[in-house]
User: Fold these one by one.
Assistant:
Number 1:
Amino acid sequence: MKNDYIKELSSQVERKSVTYQNRYGFQIAGDLYSPKNRNEVKKYPALIIGAPYGGVKEQGPCVYADELAQRGFIVLTFDQSFMGESEGNPRHVSSPDIFTENFSAGVDFLGLQKFVDREKIGVIGICGSGGFALSAAQVDTRIKAIATASMYDMSEAIRGSGQLDQTALQSLKEKLSMQRWKDTENGYPEYIPSFPIEPLKEVPEGLDSTSELWFRFYGLKRGHHPRARGGFTTTSSLTQLNFRLLDYIHEISPRPILFIMGDRAHSKHYSEMAYAKALWPKELYVVEDADHIDLYDRTDRIPFDKLESFFKENL
């Protein structure tokens, strides 16, 4: 399955499979992209790109990495722990702490590469990784600049973005807590995938608008990957309910943050809320005629010129 990337690799880019450990001892599987004409004695700026929540490195991250490597960056993509080719059992467990840590583990890895300038390392978080990338930057000052695309704050999303009243929230906690009994009795956690093992030709009927959006990417040939079938173990939501990702986003300043969102994205409010809480320097960049998933893979929508200038100016 090593050739199941959703974008063909440019002839100007070299991609190498790598592994490294996070501070918990989990082995992380990644891909390291670099310009083929790389000067062996030069140190390059580097970027870490995180996949959407539940996604893998062969999807959106490979699109960003291939383009940005052509523009002079060393780029690391990776699978989160419990996902893709990275270690961690049981599979499909979500941990906001570990998912945040894995960005810093990427900094560790890049800083040891002789061709990387460890003082010029930035991160890009796509969708849910936007929240984890920002969370890592709150405490890891080695991350010098941060960009998000179609950002999701998963700690807010699991809580219904403030729309759940106390009764509904209590009911959710009760349901998830009771699921732990079932998981314990079964000896494994419940995981209900959202997308088929093989891509379908069209979106099934009867889905709500948001579910249809996800299916257009993950369930069809466009972005399908057999290791990214959507969602996490049911009880993973308990940890998200108990974790606040962006309480200290203001402490990233004076390092710069670029929030990128589509003008038609249902997720705009996450970028807008994070932008409001962040201190300067910060920028909210709106892509015209783009929905949430357009910033995963559409090279005619992803503002690569903006990303290039942002990181070259700030790294």
Number 2:
Amino acid sequence: MACGEMSGQQEKEVHLRVAAYNVEVGSNATAQEIGEALLPYDLDIVCFSEAPGGGSTEDVAKVLGLSHIVVGRYTTAGHQDKYKSIASRTPLYDYEEILMTDTLHTVTKARTAINDKEITIYSVHFPFGWRDAEHIRETTAKLAHFAYYLREKQDVETSILLGDFNFIPSNDNYISNDYEMFADAGFVPSWNDLGTDITKLNTHNAFDSTDIGSGKVIDHILYNPSKVKALDGSIIEMERPLSDHKPVWALLQVN
């Protein structure tokens, strides 16, 4: 490739530092503490799951220097103060609450633009089917509904999904049917680009020091690899956990 072509390609690339954090309704930390824990990562966008209402996301965002906030309309599973929210350095617009068939489980969506490149952000907190066969079927139908929605959007948008997915991706020893629906829609987790073996890590049960290597990584950053690539990132480990989940972050290159 000629130097001019390379320079032009680099100018079209956007680098974006993002994170996802299920903050467990802020029951174990203040907004100030959550913001200070994320501050070293110089984030451009953070998506929160189980964010309490009453301005909590805005308070965390102030610590992070993020001026633009969207808080979802519906709480997850109808529980009190379990909102999905987005905090961003750049303006957010076209807010929409995507129903995963009903208002009990939704996805909070907004767009932003960086260097004239439009990016669609989805803050997620997916349901987990466990009670019985009917509950599992209901949950699977909701995930399938949203996966189909995303598949139909891939010709027209650059989508980034961040949050608590409540599933682990497929690996050499396990096939996750929930994950495969999103893989079929064209999405991969940042762990793939980073070469991270998440089967020996966890993002849930953060307060249980014996659960470090359980493989229960259920918090992710997903994107279409034809449009986005992770250059850096990790699970954020804390000496004193601020939630039962651990935050995850990534430096993304958006082409």
